[in-house]
Amino acid sequence: MAQDIRKLFENENKLSTLKMPEGHEKRFLDKLDEALPAKPKQRSSFDFMRIAASVVILIGLSFGAYKFFETPPVEPQPQEEVATKMKSLGDVSPDLKKVEDYYLANINLELSKVKLTPENKELFDGYVVKLEELNKEYDRLSVELTQHGPNELTVSALIDNLKLRLNLLYRLKEQLQDLNDSDLDQETS
């Protein structure tokens, strides 16, 4: 089995001087096309079912996570006390007020851009549930800010909550766009 490498290189040089006959490559490609014709990619009729199954799984997991992480109810306080005592990021600093206003304006803008149709209602409802959870968490953090005063962790958590809500809306828009694109692809097929 062992061969001298010098002999292999000498044989290689001899072989490399040989040339293929004219048109050999074209004949080879023609025969290859006859044996294995290129098939146009066909869309499976189950694409819609896969998307629907993914949405159902996503909603199921979201609901399960919601139930798992659901916080116990907080003791109800008189509405007047809560309204007068609640602090927001704007009460801490004017710069934080700008950040809060920026995120809240973008969140409301993105929500207003969403076009609700019967096809995307279920997906939209799943996101609305998640947004409601984030709103409750934001309110809880605002109560903590009011009761314990401003600290780095609470302020950071409030800003992260706003970022998360905005990113959630961006993901919703992307999924709705993908859903619309797949519907258009199915209609043209």
Task: Tell me about this structure.
It is a single chain. With 189 residues, this protein is mostly helical. It folds into 2 domains: 5-35, no CATH class; 47-188, no CATH class. It is 76% helix and 0% strand. The protein is built from 8 helices and no strands. Helix 7 (121-148) packs antiparallel against helix 8 (152-188).
Oligomeric state: single chain
The general outline is: elongated
How much is the radius of gyration in Å?
Answer: 31 Å
Instruction: Characterize the biggest β-sheet.
Output: none
Percent helix among the residues? over 70%
Number of helices: 8
Tell me how many strands there are: 0
Order of helices and strands: HHHHHHHH
Low-confidence stretches: none
Structural class: mainly alpha
Any idea how many domains?
Answer: 2
What does the average pLDDT come to? 79
Beta-strand residue fraction: under 5%
